Amino acid sequence: MLTSEILKGDFLITTDKEKLDVPFIHRFLSTEAGWCDNIPLETVQKSIDNSLNFGLFHNDKQIGFARIITDYATIAYLGDVFILNEYRKQGLSKWLMEVVTNHPELQNLRRWMLITDTAPWLYEKFGFAKVKGSNLYMEKHFPNVYKKD
């Protein structure tokens, strides 16, 4: 798959895994995200290795991230979307979502999925809707999997 890079002023979104600051991503996910507290670095690295990743940078410093798990033909799961607090309210989350949803390898999919309780207003702008009735949504959820005893 080709790497894509999109510039907007001093900001860059890239799918180049080599440019990702994995310790930064791990630090945010394990201590600030809230949905995967204490996630091990090795788990974050493995998830990046097996996903289509979008790193958001400001002057070569990573400030955001999003990741897609997909077969590139029928389905995509959007996860681990974040932007550092000090860069929020600048339209960057909207731009990141535009880049993700318009990625050429992710067109004509039958289904996009995500789970969120933090920013449904953002994802609704890109056509995501709450699952009606939730009787179709099923999960095996282990919220404390990364917790150390």
Automatic annotation (TrEMBL):
Alphabetized SUPFAM superfamilies for the sequence: Acyl-CoA N-acyltransferases (Nat)
Domain N-acetyltransferase: 12-149
Gene3D superfamilies in the record: 3.40.630.30
Cited InterPro entries: Acetyltransferase_Butenolide (IPR053144), Acyl_CoA_acyltransferase (IPR016181), GNAT_dom (IPR000182)
Pfam families: Acetyltransf_7 (PF13508)
Protein name in UniProt: GNAT family N-acetyltransferase
Species of provenance: Galbibacter pacificus
